[in-house]
Amino acid sequence: MSAFLHLVRRELRLAFRQRQDSLMVVVFFVLAIVLFPFGVGPEPNILARIAPGIIWVAALLAVMLALERLFQADYEDGSLELLALAPLPLEAIVLAKVVAHWLTTGLPLIVAAPVMAVMLNMNADGMTMLFLVLVLGTPSLSLIGAIGAALILGARRGGVLLSLLILPLFIPILIFAVSAIDGTLTGLTVRPQLFILTGFFLASLALCPWASAAAIRQALE
């Protein structure tokens, strides 16, 4: 456990040295949402109706910006090979990197999302549910994205390939997260959506580190 936490701290230190990458994710998230009122008009009722979809699509695309470099930098300088030879299982190394990725991308998006929700005229109940589904959904995005980031190691034009690989896997999370917020805003039950999002997170936590580690081993051979 101490080795795992040490690796998380290492990843966070590296991320803070290149803090512009995390800043770029938040700036993209904010700008993508700010542009929508210019396109659909400033009508408060319309913005409130489409706010859940706008925020989640922007969050999904923002998370993808930082995924390509999840393993790429360590792969290029040889650090990934040394990490693979460490006593810590490669699956735990992947999980540590995903935790650091979420702390530097997903968590800032969760902090910024309520401000964007206020701008889009979302009510207090909707913002509470937005916060909850972002807490449940963004870790799943990072875990699933790790598989794509591992699969594109050494590939040319990896960013395009990464998008093609993981966007279809992100869609179910997007659908159920937005459905939960819409259900809250319209007074419908949202328990099924929350259960499904929790199931996605638990399944991703169990399966994605293993699949990502297998892809990394293949890339290192």
Overview of this protein structure:
This protein has 221 residues and is mostly helical. It is 87% helix and 0% strand. It has nine helices and no strands. The protein has helices spanning 2-17, 19-40, 44-65, 69-77, 79-84, 90-119, 124-151, 158-186, 191-220. It is elongated, with a radius of gyration of 18 Å. The mean pLDDT is 87.
Provide the fold topology.
Layout: H1 2-17, H2 19-40, H3 44-65, H4 69-77, H5 79-84, H6 90-119, H7 124-151, H8 158-186, H9 191-220
Structure summarized in a few sentences:
With 221 residues, this protein is mostly helical. It has one domain (2-220).
List keywords for this structure.
221 residues, mainly alpha
Helix-strand string: HHHHHHHHH
Task: Report the radius of gyration as a whole number of Å.
Answer: 18 Å
Number of strands: 0
Oligomer: single chain
Number of helical stretches of at least 4 residues = 9
How would the global form be characterised?
elongated
The figure for the number of domains is: 1
Which structural class matches the secondary elements? mainly alpha
Termini separation: 28 Å
Q: How much of the sequence is in beta strands?
A: under 5%
Helix proportion range: over 70%
User: Biggest sheet, in brief?
Assistant: none
Mean pLDDT: 87
Uncertain residue ranges: none
